[in-house]
Amino acid sequence: MLRSETVTGRVRPEIDDDCAALLFVVDREYRIVAINEAMLEWLGLRRDEALGRPLARVLGDGDLAVVGVRAREALESGRNMSCRETLAARLDTEPRCFEFSYLPLASSGESALACTAREVGSDRSFEAELLEAASRERRRLGRDLHDTLGQDLAHTSMLLQGLERRLAGEAPQLLPYCREVRDAVTTAAESMRATVHGLLPADLEGGLPAALAGLASRFTRYDGIGISFVGPQGPVSLPPGTAEQVYRFAQEALSNILRHASARTVTVALAPEQLNLVLTIEDDGVGLGPAAARNAGGMGLRFMRSRAGILGGSVEFVSPGRGTRVVLTVPYDNGPDAQAARATDDEREKL
Predict the structure, then answer these.
(1) Nearest to residue 92, comparing CAs of 288, 297, 291, 326?
(2) Burial label, 107 (beta-carbon count in 10 A; 0-12, 13-18, 19+)
(3) 276-326, pLDDT tens digit by residue?
(4) What are the pLDDT digits (tens) for 101-120?
(5) Which residues are CB-contacts of 148 (< 8 A; sequence separation ≥ 6)?
(6) Which residues, in sequence order, are CB contacts of 350 under 8 Å at separation 6+?
């Protein structure tokens, strides 16, 4: 995979372009001294545009910048490093998940560090474990909030009611202030209950459409934003676990809208389309372009992408002028029969 040839008295490394893994080599000044065709194609560069240039400049300041940071850490520490990263080479490319290995080279020659990467986009075990860990933590936080903060707020409200009765006879001029404090405690308790409801497992006994309709109603009630749901009246047949992930996806999307979009109205639509289930969430807020969605550092968008990947589906962020439309497409089934049926549909479209 990595070989070398002597050029003008120096040993120059070369890379086998038949190697499937992305690979580059840098010297101790972090300049690229070798790079393979797969990496060049992913970056959209020619070989002469990369060789001899600083690694950070070649990778840019987008998602790929972290690769340069990790390479520097490995070279400075002198230790091998491995990590997983979900990255997009450019704004017009979809994020891909890689397992990177950074290997300092114990050599007095030109080469100082080599980097390999194995794409793990088809291996969803890591993302599944991450989401399951997040679900467990949500449940734990929900229980803790209910059992501690919830009880404390209820006790405080009862004490304030007793104080109101006493002030009514001894210092009625202070009653408005006491009631203002009790109203604030009541508001905090309602917000806490809404938070706990979002952290606890989704109630999907009535089916996904009913759960999404209830989610829209709760967000409207607690946050004062107009959220409507459009979808099938009855339950939707989905594989085990899929309904939960779609519900959580919608929950995350609505939370992002409330925090960042400054929207007045939101539409949540669930629609069966042939072998896919499509969830569309559209708001009339400030908008979020595809580039901004891809480069945003918030964990919410990353979890949304991870959920889509685990379900074997896709997610698209579109800003048609004002507002944002998020579209999650999920196959009903990823088994061989469903894949064969989708392939047949694709062949029909070509005719």
Answers:
(1) 291
(2) exposed
(3) 899 999 999 887 655 555 544 455 676 777 778 777 788 888 876 678 889
(4) 899 987 656 788 999 888 77
(5) none
(6) none
